[in-house]
Amino acid sequence: MTKILIPAECLELTGSVQQCLLLAGEQRFIVDDIELGVSPTHTVLVSKQNDTIGLVADLYTDLPPCVSQDYSFSYTLAYNSNLQLCDDFGRTENTVYLAVHDENRSLDIWHHCLTGETRALSFSSANKADNSLHFSWVITLLAIDFPLEDCLTLARAMSYVSRETWTNDYSHFPIPVIEDSRLGIKVGWGVNQDTIHFPTLSKPSLGLYPVVDSVNWIERLLNLGVKTLQLRIKNPAQDDLELQVKRAIELGRQFKAQVFINDYWQLAIEHGAYGVHLGQEDLEESNLKQLSDEGIRLGLSTHGYYELLRIVQIAPSYIALGHIFPTTTKQMPSKPQGLVRLSLYQKLIDTIPYGSEIGVPTVAIGGIDLANASDVWQCGVSSLAVVRAVTLSNEPQKVIQAFSQIMAAHSHNQEPSHVE
């Protein structure tokens, strides 16, 4: 049971939150177990199991959130700060500054609750948001388990459309700031943003995408007709790491296949790889300009709205969406996304420019097997990444054929639309 408790001084928010919950329910989020009530303090409480988040907004009070040992986090949302962005912009933990003026744009600015790093969203100052609706969406999205960065990203998009509309239009969404020295935001890979261009891919060329941990599996699956693969060796100290990477790249050329190397981008460049796959945590240490100059295709992992909109600014060759279901193949920093979120991410991505087309190729990953593959594929993704479903099978050829049949039986238009 999840409870949303709203203070008596802003009970009018209850109706707005109810409307947001209704719209979320229409998207197939589980909202039936969310109960609305009155907060015993001036703080909005979003409480689920042993996890409680406290929120206040200067829309109705100047008091800070009530601090309690029972709270996981507490935040102040500053809508009426009237701040101008300047070089000495202060850093205040647990305060989200909304619509900060910065020349011809506005910024939502906050600090990550774990790392303390500054994050910001940019959007047009011409757009006049409904602040009460924005706050209602932040409350609602926290209740249905979105992390704060996704709550702020989606709430900003939702505050510019009709109260009856769940938007999936890229033009409605804010843009995560990836470089701004005044805020101390410097991701590193954004410096050469305008000169980075990665080769595009054909959506139908992706198909089934096994992720394997040895070149032996690469060769075995290539011989079974698989055309897209990823070599993911977790141990960077493995004795034959470079030999495995080099051989995988050579096999990809031999079979005219799309072989991606996970993480080891220097080796990928050295041996002329077709493609590289990087996680969000790997971007900081990678030289994207060098990868781009070498014409290497790039796939990037994402775990939600904020990360997705952050990395589309460097136009990767494909976007991986995950993890969809619980997985034991690696330690994950985020919760499983599930099919509802996957479907919404895909609808948004289908509106994002991709070269001269519209719609970035996508790869769904995380816990996908024959039992759930059909449901995942029907979300509209371009590819299914599988790990254990193939490598733990006694008959991988039959498993590959079964996946192919599922994707063929529920075919969808895989070619991007042209930009008008």
TrEMBL record:
InterPro entries: Aldolase_TIM, ThiamineP_synth_sf, ThiamineP_synth_TenI, TMP_synthase. 4-amino-2-methyl-5-(diphosphooxymethyl)pyrimidine binds at residues 230-234, 262, 301, 330. One of its GO terms (biological process) is thiamine diphosphate biosynthetic process. Residues 213-390 form the Thiamine phosphate synthase/TenI domain. Keywords: Magnesium, Metal-binding, Thiamine biosynthesis, Transferase. Pathway: Cofactor biosynthesis; thiamine diphosphate biosynthesis; thiamine phosphate from 4-amino-2-methyl-5-diphosphomethylpyrimidine and 4-methyl-5-(2-phosphoethyl)-thiazole: step 1/1. Condenses 4-methyl-5-(beta-hydroxyethyl)thiazole monophosphate (THZ-P) and 2-methyl-4-amino-5-hydroxymethyl pyrimidine pyrophosphate (HMP-PP) to form thiamine monophosphate (TMP). This is Thiamine-phosphate synthase. It comes from Vibrio hepatarius.
